[in-house]
Amino acid sequence: MSDVASREYELSRTGPSQASVSDYVALLKPRVMSLVIFTALVGIVRAPGEVHPVIAFTALLCIAIGAGASGALNMWWDADIDAVMSRTKRRPIPAGRVTPGEALAFGMTLAVGSVLVLGLLVNELSAALLAFTIFFYVVIYTMWLKRWTPQNIVIGGAAGAFPPMVGWAAASGGIGLESVLLFLIIFFWTPPHFWALALYKSGDYERAGVPMLPVVAGTAETRRQILLYTLILVPLAMSPFFLGMAGIGYGLVSGITGAFMLLLAVQVYRRREGAPAEQAAKRLFAFSILYLFLLFAVLLVEAVAPAGFGL
């Protein structure tokens, strides 16, 4: 969509809104927020040393609010393309229930508040990382990369990978090797996850003028890239076990689920046309969510109840 059309869209939404509480909750992108909270929690509990429960709760709350702020600001900027995509056209701003100005004010208030509270009540490093995460997602990814390059998901995926590092920094005051590995796992998980979605939603992205990989490079190249990233992801996800940072339970889960993840990526690569190709992409997209959840769930269980794995 052109800049002129974007600005016309913006002006057309300046009247008073009829927003409900649920509309403002939707602006926070609660499903994305839940993943952020979960991965940040793993960062907190895996960090060395003891952290007071109140500090941990405060850090987790600030990280969650920061994630919600990023979602609201993303929806504010992307309202023009959300309006033409079937997956997003019912969001509060394109549906006319929330005005862009209200979403902007809501997002900025949450962003500034979450960073300030985290810095004042927890520590400055975690606040700086949270501020950078919000900036990266809103400015680097949403405002720049998303509409400029088919590598938007690759580079922009860093924003979604930072929460474990923020949690780790909140609990320990530093950044450890394990938190970097958690960052890398999410970073390399993001492209195959979102490109699988893009394969069967490519028409949406094409109408919106978003240069997702299937639109720019074609579906064959997208399938190849999904397989390549999965080949990197699976051994990387197993590395905490091989490096002695996780127990045998994590090793087994990461190995079994990684093999299945790779199998689904191979199916996506081989099935290139019609309904079988779409179903393969949908299966990979759905399983990738379960895959990441299981990896972090086992890390969480091993941290809080290591005896549960007999270690």
TrEMBL record:
Query: Coiled coil where?
Result: none
Out of the domains of life, which is the source? Bacteria
- What subcellular locations does the record give? Cell inner membrane; Cell membrane
Which GO molecular function annotation, any one, does this entry have?
protoheme IX farnesyltransferase activity
* Transmembrane portions of the chain: 32-49, 55-77, 98-121, 127-145, 152-175, 181-200, 226-243, 249-269, 289-309
Q: Which reaction does it catalyse?
A: heme b + (2E,6E)-farnesyl diphosphate + H2O = Fe(II)-heme o + diphosphate
The membrane-topology field of this record reads: Multi-pass membrane protein
**GO biological process terms, semicolon-separated:** heme O biosynthetic process
EC number(s) stated in the UniProt entry for this protein: 2.5.1.141
What keywords appear on the UniProt entry?
Cell inner membrane, Cell membrane, Heme biosynthesis, Membrane, Transferase, Transmembrane, Transmembrane helix
Q: Which GO terms describe its cellular component?
A: plasma membrane
Q: What class of enzyme is it?
A: transferase
Chief location of this protein within or outside the cell: membrane
Q: Which InterPro entries match?
A: Protohaem_IX_farnesylTrfase, UbiA_prenyltransferase, UbiA_prenylTrfase_CS, UbiA_sf
Q: What else is known?
A: Carbon 2 of the heme B porphyrin ring is defined according to the Fischer nomenclature.
The entry's family comment says: Belongs to the UbiA prenyltransferase family. Protoheme IX farnesyltransferase subfamily.
Record's NCBIfam families? cyoE_ctaB, PRK04375.1-2
Task: Please state what the protein is called.
Answer: Protoheme IX farnesyltransferase
- The organism encoding this protein is Ancylobacter novellus (strain ATCC 8093 / DSM 506 / JCM 20403 / CCM 1077 / IAM 12100 / NBRC 12443 / NCIMB 10456)
